[in-house]
Amino acid sequence: MRVFQTIWIIPIAAAIAVFSGCGGDDGQQTEHLRGSGNIKADLTGSCVGFCGKMSDDGCWCDDLCTTYNDCCQDKASVCVPVAGCKVDCDCDQGQLCTPEGTCVNGFAPAYCCTKAGCQAGWPCTNPDGSKGTCAGNPPPPPPPACKVDCDCDQGEICAQGQCVTGIIPAYCCTKAGCQAGWPCTNPDGSQGTCAGNPPPPPPACKVDCDCDQGQLCTPEGTCVNGFAPAYCCTKAGCQAGWPCTNPDGSQGTCP
To answer: Which of 13-27, 55-69, 138-152 has the lowest mean pLDDT?
Structure first.
């Protein structure tokens, strides 16, 4: 009876020893299983959030997966190595930097505090690795439209890089319309006084027919618009029945 018990005890002890040997270091067991082809190797599953390790789908996302032929189908596009990646700010905005130095797309954006596109109120990482909160990074302001008043229309003032209309005109000394005696600004920013650049004088006239139809000629020889049209009898547009002036200055009636 004792011999019979010994015969059964020996195989059981050997079996225990075999199973105990397989329960050693987890890393060695994993490498052995990957090498033996017992890990999923059908190129399905995703590496999103699993770069550098095994995906929950059973495929791998590390540098050895190409050796064992067990990479997830999107490993090449998701786990893109970037030389020198140490913090999230080394990657594109929204990507995170894994401990292996790889820029990847996570389940949620990993913002860099100092890059454009940091969503206001979201946690972010600074270039030195410290944590912060996105301030919103508004778009850069437009380039200044002006530097001095002369960059603007005559009479406008240049304020904080923008041309605006002030309470009183801000004249440019070298532009037409600078009112004589008024302070003005030169194109180089220096101050001066308007010399008067008046607009060109209107054409001289002697009678209404020297002016545009409907205008009258003043005693000073200037064509102006009066309260009522001053017709020239011989010009087109003379309203029938209205009084008019002939080119010789005599009065008549529009035909």
So the answer is: 13-27
DSSP symbols for 115-138: STTPPTTSEEE-TTS-EEE----P
CA distances from 167 to 95, 171, 192 (A): 52, 12, 19
Collapsed DSSP state (helix, strand, coil) of residue 217? strand
Only one residue has tokens 């929204």, namely 94
**Is 185:173 a contact under the CB 8 Å cutoff?**
yes
The Cα–Cα gap between 226 and 208 comes to 11
Confidence label for 161 from pLDDT (cuts 50, 70 and 90): confident
CA–CA separation, 147 vs 50, rounded Å?
Answer: 54
Look up the pTM and report it: 0.26
Count Cβ atoms within 10 A of the Cβ of residue 158 and give its class: 0-12 exposed, 13-18 middle, 19 or more buried. buried
